[in-house]
Amino acid sequence: MKADAVFEGGGVRGIAFVGAIQAMEEANVEWQRLAGTSAGAVIAALLASGYKSKEIRERISEINFSKLRGKTILNSIPLIGTFLELMIHLGIYKNDHLEAWVDSLLLEKGIRTFADLPEGKLKVIASDVSNGQMLILPDDLERYGMTPADLKVSTAVMMSASLPFFFRPVIWKSKDLNKSYILDGGLLSNFPIWIFDTDNPRFPTFGFHFVKDEVNIDPVIPTPIHLFKNIFKTMLQAHDLRYMNDETIERTIQIPTGYINATDFELKDNEIEFLYQSGYTSAKNFLMNWDFQKHKEKRMKRLG
Questions:
Q1: What average pLDDT values come out for the chain (304 residues) when binned by 10 residues?
Q2: Is 38 noted as a catalytic residue in this protein?
Q3: Which listed residue (4, 128, 184, 240) is catalytic?
Q4: Coil, strand, or helix at residue 7?
Q5: Given 4, 38, 49, 127, which residue is catalytic?
Q6: What contacts 24+ positions apart, CB below 8 Å, involve 296-301?
Q7: CB contact at 8 A, 81 and 8
Q8: Of 81, 83, 118, 156, which sits most exposed with the smallest number of CB within 10 A?
Q9: Considering the entire predicted model, what is its pTM?
């Protein structure tokens, strides 16, 4: 079965997508086009370059997740260091380790820039907070005077995964030397399930979405740092609780993530395994009841 895939943003919880992908591969699903935000952009990029679920799982098992939270010397200074990072760099941590890791994996498949992928194969969502616009990469490169050959896929992924306040924004210079500050795609579209939609689709678009029962935030906000953290925790987790209409739900694999949050970079082995199995089981159960023709008929009725 041919299909498109759209992956939600969700930080380290993206491990669950790997289990879901394995279940899809076992059902002989062939990905035509892929899109994602944040962690979803990482998975979409690896799949678009030719990686399979087994390879991705092996590579993820080699990651030191704590390194993804790129700490600096200032981060070692309690409280004041974090405040200084926010004031100086507009984010607590660097995000360049993720870019380097994704770049190394893509290069093994011969992929560096978007020009190395088939046209339309991959779309990465980010947010240009300088201009107040959502970025769909590589589609929107033209308005920056750039082409797909000018942007590394790994850089686009880093942009998409730069959580506000948590990571420094990516300062991006276009060819005319204008600067833009780019942050997490989840600010504007954490789950762009609409991105491949047409009135009469030839094959389905499957969404991969996290389910969390409640928003877990700190009830006490003693400092501006705690306020910033609560802002982006609320933003990210509220995305998981937002209303999804029937048309979206029926084509979406909903994956429970328990108590695990997007920024839990100190995951234990049992938590990693839980996420993987949750994704695998969720996709298996979804496929048992999936019927593209029925979905398409319902879709046409809604549009008609």
A1: 92 90 97 95 97 94 68 62 64 79 96 97 94 92 92 95 81 77 83 87 91 58 61 58 67 90 77 94 95 80 66
A2: yes
A3: 184
A4: strand
A5: 38
A6: 296/200, 296/201, 298/247, 298/250, 299/201, 299/247, 300/199, 300/200
A7: no
A8: 118
A9: 0.86
